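call fold(seq) -> tokens
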Amino acid sequence: MGRVTAPNQVLPVPPADLPGTLGELRAAGHRHRTVKQELRDNLLDRMRSGADRFPGIVGYDDTVLPEVERALLAGHDMVLLGERGQGKTRLIRSLVALLDEWTPVIPGSVLNEHPMHPLTPASRALVAGAGDDLAVGWLHRSMRYGEKLATPDTSVGDLIGDVDPIRLAQGRTLGDPETIHFGLVPRTNRGIFAVNELPDLAERIQVALLNVLEERDIQVRGYQLRLPLDLFLVASANPEDYTNRGRIITPLKDRFGAEVRTHYPVDLELELALIRQEAELVAEVPEHVLEVLARFARAVRESPSVDPRSGVSARFAIAAAETVAAAALRRSGLLAAGPAAPGVRPEAPVARVGDAVSVTSTLRGKVEFESGEEGREVEILAHLLRTATAETFRARLAGLDLSGFTGLVAEGTVIETGELVSSAELLRQVGTVPGLAKALDRLGLGDAPTPEEAAAGIEFVLEGLHLTRRLGKDVTESGRTVYGGRG
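ret:
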């Protein structure tokens, strides 16, 4: 059970056996540790036990994660440098799992102060007065993470804090720390605070952050408050901006102990693993279709027509897989309209390579092209998709005798497929083809594929033969694809 605090947000309830007073906390042998000590100790525990240190992070095992681990063990605040869609925010948020599940706090403390290490004058007075009878609250690690997307309009008040006019009106003086309404950074005390796209912060805001990182003081409207915050600060940035000539002040750059470069998946298998993990597919997408999309994403990333400084996000391939699955589901729904023929089973949603054509128009907004390519975006993506399909065809079906397919159309048979052509109709047109079983097996569709899976395999073979100039292909006015004749 959990305590509901907002729609769709449920906070864990602390176990009943946790100490309830400062005296019980001391008696239990609890010791105060900084956030960086917590992260170091818990990371080492996972290393020694062989547990997964960063669940859900794909493709960084031998490159990025060792550098992140060294930064954590050294107690260094760090910056993740990389183009968009490289999983920087995902990696940052995964660090929360390395914190203790529950940590003691002084109830009502805005700064999540530790009962054994109070910061503000009010909390120190409270601890001194109550002694071992001080009530202890418990904070779950999910509540010890703060994040801010840096934008030019971010203010010092947002990050650090501002004077609260209501508290001044109540009679407090400007020199009283109780007059300050703390911002996001102090409110994440004893936790992890992330700044996404750090160079987008205005210089004066970077200076305020500099004080928090190094001098550990807070300056609000001329009032300086010495506040030894306990934070692990991590930021993300684009490498192009994170330079001495970019939008980052050099002293702040110097305060981060580690700069870690992220990257896109280094090989095809990692790209596929990422798609499988992240894509929420509403229909079955066969492995050969996923491979086409993974190769497509990599081809777009490497294309000279695409701006390399902006990158092509890993979300591009994920969204492509989801779009293709949606096209299969749409076909299934439309083919189910009207009265069903006797003995004909409904069309199951299984994606085909032809469903990927829609990706070139729906996802072009995710790609930033070079300035000279304006107006050719869809054409470029369509060419790269055809290239990815041909590469997958060669990789999966190289050396296989496909003369049964070419012989079929050489005899004058025309095979028509398309978005709204059912699997039964496609299989009827093809009939029995020598070599079909071996082709389906090479595509990973097994010994007994469903009609929809067999249709997906057949369409891929036909398209591959066309792209390797062994079959002709035409597109009708109604949008159907007709294979027949020699290319």
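Residues 1-7 have pLDDT under 50 and may be disordered.
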